[in-house]
Structure prediction request, 149 residues.
Amino acid sequence: MSQGTVRQDMGRGRTKAVVVETRKRRPMRPEDEKPITPAAPVAPVRAAEPAPAPAQARPQQPTPAPRVHQPGGSQTNQRPQQSYQQPRSNDRPRPVVLNHLSPEEMDARRRALAESQARDAQDAIRRAEEEKLRAAEEAIRKAAEAEEA
Prediction:
């Protein structure tokens, strides 16, 4: 860590000199080198379409050689090329996973996610039942109107 001073702007045109500590940036992160594998879908949205086979597409793509960190190299501040990754779909944003959670927090998040998914499934079933009732009521109403006419 290194220390330095900067001028901090405060309200109404005032400034203040403050001490800041900066950490040295790591040139490479482990997640930059890992290929992103597509996550398994939680609930299939369309059952009519067959799921793409990721095992067939994976061998056709060349895998880059593992990079070794060499201090003093000219490429230490550059990110590795991401050409081997599959493009992400913009249908759903990926959830942010924090790696520094305690086991209790992870369990609480897992439970909340499971409860949310169960609630979504129940809501979908309830909406389908309501739609069936609405369609039946509409058919009865149309039949009654046809008899009156």
Observations:
- The helical segments are 30-33, 54-60, 103-148.
- Strands lie at 2-9, 15-22.
